[in-house]
Every structure is written in C-alpha cells, then in structure tokens.
Design goal:
Helix content: 40-55%
CATH topology of the largest domain: Butyryl-CoA Dehydrogenase, subunit A, domain 3
Radius of gyration: 21 Å
Strand content: 5-15%
Amino acid sequence: MEFELDDDLVAVEDLASQVFGSLAKVERVVEVERTEGGFDATLWQSLADSGLIGLALPESAGGAGMGMLGLTTVLQQQGRRVAPVPVWAVVAGAAMPIAQFGTSAQTARYLPGMVDGSVVLVGAFDDAPGASPVLTAIRKGDDLVVTGEIPSVPWAPAAAGVVVPVRCEDDSIAVVIAPADATGVTVTPLAVTGRGADAALRFEDVHVGAEDVLPGDGAEIAAWARLRIRIALAALQLGVCEEALRATALYTSERVQFGRPLSTNQGVALRAADAYLDTEAIRLTMRRAAWLVDSDREDEAASAALVAKWWASRAGIRVGLTAQHLHGGIGADIDYPIHRYFLWGRQIAFTLGGADATAAALGDVLETAPLIGAAE
C-alpha cells in the first residue's frame, strides 16, 4: 500500500483544514465548552454543508464513497483543532452501520438527515471487548423492550438517538436505533476528561419497534462497527498528537533558558524525537488499518484496527505527557491551550478500551490473524 494520500484525499484534507481552522479556533472551542454544552452546532452544520459528514458513506446513501481513508482524513484535521463535534460517533458509530446493514426504509429514514446535519445519531458501542452489552431486551410482540444503563455515551446530549447493541432474552444480540426522547429514556449529562458533551443513558422498559432493529446478526454488526470506531479514534488521536507536537516544537524553539533555546537541550530534543516517533507510529498503523477496510480485507483489518488503537492509546498518552512536560509550568495550566490536547489525548486513549484492554483483545485474535505479505 501507499501511505501517502492521493489527490482526492489531499483535497479533502485541505477542505477539512480550512473548515476546522476557520471555525474551531481556541477561543471558539472554549466558548462552546463553557456556554454551549460542548457541542458546536454551527461547526457541525458547516461540516455538513461542505459534504464532510457524508464523505465516507456510499454514494447510494448520499455520501461520496470515500470510505475509511476519507473519514480518517477528516478526523485527523478535527484532532488538530480539538473541535467539539461528534464526527467519529456519528459517522463510524451510527451512519456507517446503518448504511451497511440497514433496510432501505431505515437508510431512507435516517441517513439523509445525518448527511445534511439535521439529525444527530451516535453509536454506543463502548463496552469491554468480548463483554455482554450492558442493555438487555425482551420481546413483546414485534417490539423489543430495552432496559439498562450505559454509564457514558459520547455526544449523547446532542443526539436524537443512539445505535446500540442489546442482549435479548434468548441470548442473541440485536443492534437497535433507540430514540433519545422515547418514553423511559433518561439522558444525564456528564463532565468528562475531554470536556465533551457526554451523558449517561438509562433505559426503563423502552419499546423499540421492529422497524428500528438492524437486520442480521447483532454481534457481527457490533464487531463491524467497533472495528471502524477504533480506526476513527486513532485518526482523531493522530491529529491531537500532531498539533501538540507542533506547538511544543514552536514553544521550545522560542523559549530561551540559560541563554539558549530549550530545543537545543539534549534531553528536550530526545523527548521530542520520541514523541515524533510515537506520532508516526499512530499514523502508519491507522492508515494501514483504514486501507485494509477500504480494500475489503475485513479479517486483516480486525487485527490492524486493534494495533492502531493500541498505538493511539499508549503512544497518544506519551505524546500528551511529553508536550505538557516540555511546556514547563504553563503546561499544567488548564487555561493554556496545550492542556486541552493533553485532556483530549487521555479521553481518546480510554474510549473503547485503553491500551491494556486493547492488547488483550489483540491477543485473542493473533492466533488466527493472517500473515502480512511483503507485496503490500
């Protein structure tokens, strides 16, 4: 494979950089966190108007058919600005599963609004690898009656509904589209590390009709979605690390101590070099995993996505700590921009499992993982 972006993806990168760069400046991000609940509706609509939300979806679903490489290119630019919008949660967590597995009626009902920005549905797949869904359901006629509580769902306060797996009474898994305003659903906003718009969701005998159950094996659908979410999170982490590293390089080059720039100190240079290598490891593993998905090599992509998420978790935290440390005292100031990158890095690192949980999941699949051919 080629690790460089082709011309179409470079154009996407440029467009995403322009949108996030103009509408997600530091002052605006702070304003959204403090006064708008952590969700920038103005930026979200601009992303929709520019075609970036639907970019990864098939053309038949109203998208541009640019797949995971398209989505990760957008997410990388979002990470550079720590922009408070639910791109990964909406696209990888909800829109892509609906486009792939939904009936024609479901795709027609939900995807147009998601692509144009008027409907926000998010995925709620953040449970431990191999664990049972936290929601349970019993069948009552054609409906599923759902009960349980999800401790934290990213961007849920801004969402009209969630795409979420449930365990049925016959021990099967179903993936449902549950409206957030349905009778019996309680949305409780949470304060989280990354300062985003998260919430706990409680379901008390919530009726979900057959028209809102994705057809097929729910366990396979959930695994399919988690694979893509892991890659999406790695792409977001890449952008966070890139910008944190850029800001740190600028600061240490300008900050003079004992008559010379900090960057000329050997210890500083070595820490920065390690952070650069960590950032590149996230880039290469993430991009390879996205390419495997777009090449319809799902079996290989499953392990590659875990590798990318492991690097995003382990290396992402290292880069954040390095950036904060090399900024000295102001690196710990919660009002200084670099601290926000540190917080985002930690939030991403532990979403859908931290490094240890991801390594354990990877260990479960290594015996059956295909060999990687040199011709790739």
